[in-house]
Description:
By secondary structure, the chain is α/β, with parallel strands linked by helices. The protein is built from twelve helices and ten strands.
Amino acid sequence: MTPTALGTVRHDWTLPEVESLLGLPLMDLLFHAQRVHRERHQPNTVQMSTLLSIKTGACPEDCAYCPQSVRYDTGLEREELMEVAAVRERALQAREAGATRFCMGAAYRSPKAKDLRVITQMVREVSALGLETCATLGMLTPEQAHELKDAGLDYYNHNLDTSPQFYGQVITTRTYRDRLDTLEAVRAADLKVCCGGILGMGESASDRAGLLMTLANLPQHPESVPINQLVQVPGTPLEGTAPVDPLDFVRTIAAARLMMPAAHVRLSAGREAMSDELQALCFLAGANSIFYGERLLTTGNPDVERDRRLLERLGIRPESVAEAIPPPAPRHEETAA
Ligand code: SAM
Ligand code: DTB
Ligand code: SF4
């Protein structure tokens, strides 16, 4: 791979190629990632999304990382689907704090028709506030994806979580294929895709490569790629897993930036446990989105004051909705095509 070929849009990655990308000398990897980042995105801006858990806990699935599974005793209080007005109020607060996207998460295997009717109303209300909307509700049928699109939903989050090989050690109640089917339904409804994974679940470097390869080889790259660091929750099977080497976390972000150059790569869960310096390295590696606000879904996130100070120290400003549209591809890609 020549340095200029790094950062072109491709859908034919092989595992050895991705493994060698992840294994580059760190400074080379960071240099190329930052170069590609600057070709495609505004440097020094970060997109800010706020999460809200609109239905919490009692989920029938067995995702080994998740505090919301009914199978693990994590002490989490279950909560029914929220009222539309209460969600609107939280979206308004998120907008006032500076978020541009509001992401509504529900602990479902897949949403029921009666719940989806309420959620589409939430999407309409949040959209009317001028916020971008995102939802993560589990598996969707093609019809459900269209219903959400018709309500004005912008993004649907559905993660692959890890490589196809490692997946079975983390989740047994739905298959990798199920996840790919939902992603297809979301694309077919012309929704933007937010899809990424979790590091620090005991996976190997090759599994991280396998996750990135699967994401980049999708027919169209996700517009948004969340890279989560496992938040270890007492009571979940993954509590006590050896944490991922922070520099391997940074490498994964850099490889995501190079392989999906136009995507927003989100430095997602796990920031509360990260130093400001580690987060700065993630931004250097090409991360340009964060979850903003004191809570993720059920676990903590840095408070707004800490994030404001961090962005100020780094000279980073929040990205506006208009800026989030990626600029045209750089010249070398046009000539390559
Ligand atoms: N139930 C839906 C689903 O699984 O598709 C939507 C909500 S689920 C909580 C959304 C994503 O959050 C998961 O796919 C997973 O990637 C991430 N997640 C959940 N628990 C996590 C944890 N403890 N640490 C990091 N990420 C986590
Ligand atoms: C994503 O990739 N990470 C977010 C969002 N998409 C839905 C969720 C992180 C959840 C962390 C655990 C919790 O707070 O429950
Ligand atoms: Fe349920 Fe989603 Fe948690 Fe899995 S990740 S247990 S599907 S809420």
